[in-house]
Amino acid sequence: MPPAAATRPAPSDLAFVPFVSVDNMMRLVNAIGVEPFLRELAAYIHADFLRWPEFDKTPRVASHSRDGVIELMPAADARHYGFKYVNGHPKNMREGYQTVTAFGVLSSVANGYPVLLSEMTLLTALRTAATSALAAQFLAPRDADVMAMIGNGAQCEFQALAFRAINGVNRLRLYDIDPNATAKAVRNLTAQGFDVVHCLSAEAAVEGAQIITTCTADKQYATILTDNMVGSGVHLNAIGGDCPGKTELHRDILLRSDIFVEYPPQTRIEGELQQLPKDHPVTELWSVMAGTAKGRRDGKQITLFDSVGFAIEDFSALRFVRDMLETHPHFDRLDLLADPDDPRDLFGMLIRAR
Ligand SMILES: NC(=O)c1ccc[n+]([C@@H]2O[C@H](COP(=O)([O-])OP(=O)(O)OC[C@H]3O[C@@H](n4cnc5c(N)ncnc54)[C@H](O)[C@@H]3O)[C@@H](O)[C@H]2O)c1
After folding, report:
1. Which pTM does this prediction carry?
2. Which Pfam families does this UniProt record tie to the protein (predicted)?
């Protein structure tokens, strides 16, 4: 006869890994406040960019299909290893699914045990926005206070909040091919105290904007901005072109811009940069932060942050969340790791559980 449930060996403390569900992530972000969360997360990303050479880096591992992409994004330093599972399916939204969903793990390099498992759909939106706003601190015109946002889907409000929290931008000009998306964003952002204009074309949205954020989703070489729409002195924050065959900007804009990237081996495959020859000069964002390369030089220069999203940003986000759990314990203990009394007796543990 099997032993009663009460006599089954309970998992040891080593078996449990802190798990941040979507519900707990929302509690954590709301407890800290979205804008303070974005500012503090940006500080973690900044700190990790400053020690860029210490990281074990690789372009993400992408599995492409006709409908989208599923990617694994690993990065490690001497103490921690992190990875994110993330998808990108532009057609999803029309079928009632999200374009991007994600979860991730942070582990101890010393013994390989995970120290955190977390939802990362919300966290990706937050880290993408924090990275964009951090980049703009080094690249956007100093007096920028109007941002155009083309593509008003899931990422839009997070981007807006990060640019306010980190760069003081409070005036927004929004456009999406789907007016319902713009109406949603106008509603959400007006409620957050932004001065928002609902524009009827991308041309109208960029009028008078010193920063242009493109965050559209379309699995093709799209032209969201044409050359005539980008005046001198503008900072472009292009986040939607992040996959082979998926771009947002006309090539001529790239030829007039100074291009800043996260990790060149990945951006050359996935970013706007895929439209240019393999040796086109780019500047790595971390080196601008470290002071070894120039960011914005003058008021006429067009700067382009050709963002594709890099694993170190997810690593920073997981590290940040793990630290925040010490003061805001919004997590569950997940029985994730098999931990037999005798590390070699994995089979015995299975049989004793009958
Ligand atoms: N760079 C990064 O780190 C990073 C991170 C997350 C997401 N992304 C990318 O950002 C993009 C936006 O993601 P999301 O989660 O907000 O997607 P989403 O599907 O929720 O929103 C995309 C919006 O773009 C609009 N759109 C599509 N084509 C357009 C066009 N020609 N002009 C104007 N609007 C258009 C759609 O109507 C939709 O509202 C995706 O391409 C995603 O892959 C990049």
Report:
1. 0.96
2. OCD_Mu_crystall
